[in-house]
Amino acid sequence: MKKNMLTIVVIALSAINLVLSAVLVFAVVPASNKTSRLVEQVSSIINLELESVSGEAVENVNPADVENYKIDQKLTFNLMRSGDGSDHYAALDSISLSINKASKDYSKLNSTIAANESFITDIVSEVVSSYNYDDAIASREEMKAKILEKVQGHFKSNFIFSVSLNNLCFQ
Question: Considering 4, 51, 142, 163, which has the largest number of Cβ atoms within 10 A of its Cβ?
């Protein structure tokens, strides 16, 4: 009789082990996968743009090879209507382009920047005007990245590696 009792205890413990394993598989693993996905999404949101939009690391540009081109023109833009229904504006004093003099396209494209000033201001106007007041305040760097991407697309080169909107104000 003692052997049968021991067998029943072993079978009961095995059944309990099976039930706890099922709970583990169906309850804990999905929750841990959700947590893992959440951590992955948060880490991708927090990714602090270690490279420029073009993929060329900004740190790789030697400061001696940087030339600044300033479009000295005060500009005012209408922002998209926000939820409060009032009109908002953006204003800036000038646009500065940081140019890599060591770039292979520098010699042929540097002279074309002055001729394309109106196109560059048009790109800035288009991008800035596409934001509403709250989004514009919250995402200045994203705005500059979009402007940079469009300017690089216009010149079909990444010899311009940074755009600065000097004294950008929102009202």
Answer: 163
